[in-house]
Specification:
Length: about 700
Amino acid sequence: MMRSSLSASLRALACVLPVFLSSPALGDDPPPAARPNVLLITVDTLRPDALGWVAGKNSTPALDALAASGVSFPAALASVPITLPSHTSLMTALVPRRHGVRDNGQVLGPSPGTLAETLGTSGFTTAAFVSGYPLAAEFGLDRGFEHYDDTFRSARGALERRAGDTTAAALDWLRDAAQPWFLWVHYYDPHDPYDPPEEHRRSGGRGAYYGEVAAVDSAVGALLQGAEKGATTQPGGSLITVFAADHGESLGEHGENTHGFFVYDSTLRVPLVIAWPGHLEPRRVDAPGRLVDIVPTLLDLLSLDPPEGIDGVSLTPLLKGRDQEIPPALLESRRPWNSYGWAPLTALSHDGWKLIVAPKPELYDLTTDPGETKNLIDTDRRRARELQAMLREAKSLPEAASRGAVDPETSARLRALGYVGAGASKRDQPPANLPDPKDRIEVWNLLGEAEGAFARGDFEAALRGYGTVLAQEPGNPYALARSGMAFLEIGDAENAASRLVKAVTRQPDQPEVRNSLAVALTRLRRFEEAEEQWAELIRLQPRRAGAWAGLGNTLGLAKKSKAAVEALERAVELAPDNPEHRVRLGFAAFAVGRLEQAANSLEQAAELVGPENFPHRASLGILLLRQGNLPRARLWLSRSQPTEPDFAAGRIELARLEVAAGNREAARRALVEALQAAPRLLDNVRQDQMLAPLLR
């Protein structure tokens, strides 16, 4: 989705006018130095030791050069090892428990404020280019950006965009961007599965992962070159570049193959670089800065006030070579609870020590044991108590409500459609005596193997894998949900619904479970139940266009055509470039007699995909014919192809048009094509006074 606003021009004007009015020509003091441009680069799933400047194991020349030009932190800390909540913490300077986004798929509400909003109101032109579906605009991080590009393609079983394509889109925007600008560019490539371009492949056990990192490095190099050139096109212009990962990757450490499950440093330690040539002397800082510290640090460098009540602190003293005490890092992963029904994990890291709160607690001396292999919880009780006290203090501020609460506009729309429930079910806090995730790592890896089969399209193998887990844990919500989705993929809607009903009972706030259950119920023609699932999904993700489209489709099948139109209109509002939503809206509008809206929707869909690729040319022609638009009708009817469902009916209408125009041979050809596609129409044609003569 790409959006831009007139406010970009107004903000650019707001930056220019004060300078003009205070120019020496008017007798005032010279204008202050131009405010620097800001480039934020984030890379998904990037371990620090995958970078040359940190460990020397992988060639990353562009990022190595960036680190050498700025202040580098090889061991910064993310708050959570999951993409959306980690980026939300970075953009708000709040830990997840305070901004409320605890997992992918949740939604950032109208508060707290974001970095983009702060810079936007300070005169910056703002744009973002993200590369993975967890950061799609519908989840709320687009707030404050005038232009938010989340154009993804289906790749390797996920919705993402390759690094080179993201850089190209960002550079295209930069060419005409008004300064000063704030540009965020996010790369997703190192996320599993690892499949780097051939030219970046590496050998060895981590070769595929390192190759993905190398591909990002190449794209970052091109981005930096373009950004540096663009930043210096105005007098006094300069560029602050911030580079960070959102989280790391375990790659087998502690038995975890990927990330999001445990809270060890393998997935929470990230690289961080802040570069401002001519203003910050290059240096390496071993202190563990935090991602929540980026916003206050950047605003400090820009001489802007940070938001009140944030968790982050400015790292400016460290940037300038002075000592600084950094507050303890509050860490978490609620995914073991959210997805699997196991205990959530919380941790606190400070001054070289780390406490992990779990059913079996853990304490590590990171100075002597950076791999977190020696649990000292039973041998250093004093240290554990000190960290527990810090943890209580860190958690003393009120916890934000879990995101996903419906906004007023969506609530009104749902009420208008007849859904008056109180909203998505809110789960209770995790109960006591839940399994420790450490004791479920084998089950988790079994699920990972089943996921691999699912991603390959081997749904039978995936079902066997999920079945193995369910034999051990019959109520495992993840295995129930994913096996239900696998049944859906092989066309078994009955078994899919059975599994998904159980899963949604255990995971009422998981959007993808509700989405799949709604699809299964629709296929089973249990429309009222399906409608309720779509409504709950919309409450969880109000800006998910596919949810509104799904609701509209189900309403249409249930013969609730007017309500279907309203739901599909919202889908089109949210995703105006999606031709499928416009097609569905066109047919729904036709069902309630809105011929003009129907024809317009289909024509707009045809424009999006190109007339030669539009699969409903005959239907559009018939609609235009009913409106009396004969020239446009003839054009679309003549373009139709035998693969279209309304081809035969369209050819019949085209034959009538040609007869009326005196084109008997053209009419005969159209009639022959109609009867070849639908021989059953022959008896009707024989009784038609206009068409019957063409049979002779």
